[in-house]
Each structure stands twice: as C-alpha cells, then as structure tokens.
C-alpha cells in the first residue's frame, strides 16, 4: 500500500479519538494561560527576557503535546488494533512513519496558533517591555513553538512505541520534565543545556547566552527525538503485534 492512503487512514484514527482533541485543547489553554500569567510579573529585572517570558507557557504545555503523541500510539495496543493495522499495512516501517506524521502535523499547526496566542497575550501583559522585540524574533518564537511542541509529541510517540504503554512513557517523561530537568537545569553550562527540553527552549530566548543557538538547540532536541523514534521503530518492526 502506498504511503498516502496509509497516512489518510492514520489521520482518520486520530480524528476518532476524543482524548486527542482534549490534549490539543489543553496544549493551547495551558500554554496560553501560563504565558499570560508570566507576563504579569516584574519586567524590571536586568536579566528579563520578554521573548522567553512570552513563551514560558510551553514548559507546562509540552506535557499535553507529549500526551497527544503517547495516546495516539498507545491506542493501537488496545483491542488488537495493531494486529489489524499490520494486516492492512504489512510494511511496518511505512505504517509507523504514517502514524508519526499524523501525530506531528496537527501538533505543529496547533503549536503555531498557540505560539501566536501566547505572544499576543504576553505582549498585552508586558506593555512597553516588549518594544525591543523585532518582528524576526517574534516570528522565530512562534515558529519555534510549533516545531518544539511537534518534536516533543514525537518524543512521546516514540517512547510509547518502545515501551508499548502510554502510562509507562508518561511516567518517565512527566517527572523528568517537571522535576529532574528542572533540578539539573539549575546548574550552569555543560550537560543541562543539552537536555531535550532545555536545548529546544533556547529558541525562545531573545539573546541566548549558552553554547547553543536558537536553531542548533532545536537540532539537539530533534536528535534526541530521532533516537527515541528509532528505538520505537525497532520495537514496532521486531516485536509481535
């Protein structure tokens, strides 16, 4: 079977899962709300970064993106869905690629809308503090938001395929992002800036001061994601349905 009909089938599956609509709605609501709250804080700190503040909501919002990817894949492990999928599409790699595409595209698009909304509410809250943000910086933040959230959704999808469990994937990633990465991230230089979330969020800094730039940071996140997706692809190819 060609890739296009496989992708269409996977997109239809995505559309039938109500929980995925909830994840996308939570992604938008949580990210925008936290960015609005962050924008009400003090803007007089010498180290204040208006661009990073505008997209601060992506830190909690990424959990919803990861959940979207995890739930989209884990649904195949229920009720013999994966066996039926492999019967219809014997080439497992093609099926997995279609599944990942069906995960990444809606999260990327919602991420763009979310980024634009977060920037808008943050600008309203920070007032004159955002006057120094150029159109290029704002565009980078919005596009970076879509790309970063899509990568994190793929990260969740890949880990779920590897573990064959959304609960297992989320029980690893959520504590890591909310606790481990936060604690390690308080260190300066070295390993912390190369963690998948820390590296990707460099795109939200107006003037990054580490060794990674906005796009090289996203590239590091993409490498982490590619490694996890490759492990998930191995699991899909080698394990019984």
Compile the SSE list and pairings.
Layout: H1 3-16, H2 18-38, H3 50-54, H4 58-74, H5 81-88, H6 92-126, H7 135-163, H8 166-184, H9 196-200, H10 214-238
Helix pairs in contact: 1-6, 2-4, 2-6, 4-6, 4-7, 4-8, 6-7, 7-8, 7-10
How does this model look, in words?
With 241 residues, the protein is mostly helical. The protein contains 10 helices and no strands. It has helices spanning 3-16, 18-38, 50-54, 58-74, 81-88, 92-126, 135-163, 166-184, 196-200, 214-238. Helix 4 runs antiparallel to helix 6 (92-126) and helix 7 packs parallel to helix 10 (214-238). The chain is elongated, with a radius of gyration of 18 Å.
Quick structural overview:
This protein is mainly α. Helices cover 74% and strands 0% of the residues.
The number of strands is: 0
Distance between the amino and carboxyl termini: 19 Å
Measured on Cα atoms, how large is the radius of gyration?
A: 18 Å
Structural class: mainly alpha
The tally of helices reads 10
Q: Flag low-confidence runs.
A: none
Order of helices and strands: HHHHHHHHHH
Fraction of residues in helices?
over 70%
Mean residue pLDDT: 89
Q: In this structure, how is the largest beta sheet organized?
A: none
Query: What is the approximate shape?
Result: elongated
Beta fraction: under 5%
């Amino acid at each position: 079977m060609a890739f296009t009909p496989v992708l269409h089938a996977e997109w239809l599956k995505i559309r039938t899962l109500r929980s995925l609509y909830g994840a996308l709605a939570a992604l938008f609501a949580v990210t925008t709300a936290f960015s609005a709250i962050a924008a009400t804080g003090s803007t007089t700190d010498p180290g204040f970064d208006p661009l990073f503040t505008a997209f601060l909501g992506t830190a909690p919002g990424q959990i919803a993106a990861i959940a979207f990817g995890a739930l989209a894949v884990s649904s195949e492990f229920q009720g013999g869905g994966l066996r039926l999928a492999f019967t219809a599409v014997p080439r497992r790699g093609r099926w997995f690629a279609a599944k990942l595409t069906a995960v990444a595209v809606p999260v990327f698009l919602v991420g763009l809308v979310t980024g634009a909304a977060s920037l808008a509410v943050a600008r309203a809250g920070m007032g004159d503090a955002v006057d120094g943000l150029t159109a290029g910086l704002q565009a980078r933040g919005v596009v970076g938001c879509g790309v970063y959230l899509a990568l994190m959704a793929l990260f969740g999808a890949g880990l779920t395929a590897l573990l064959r469990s959304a609960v297992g994937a989320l029980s690893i990633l959520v504590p890591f992002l909310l606790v481990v990465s936060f604690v390690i991230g308080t260190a300066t230089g070295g390993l912390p800036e190369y963690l998948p979330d820390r590296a990707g969020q460099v795109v939200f800094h107006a003037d990054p001061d580490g060794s990674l730039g906005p796009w090289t940071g996203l590239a590091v996140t993409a490498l982490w994601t590619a490694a996890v997706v490759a492990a998930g692809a191995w699991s899909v190819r080698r394990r019984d349905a």
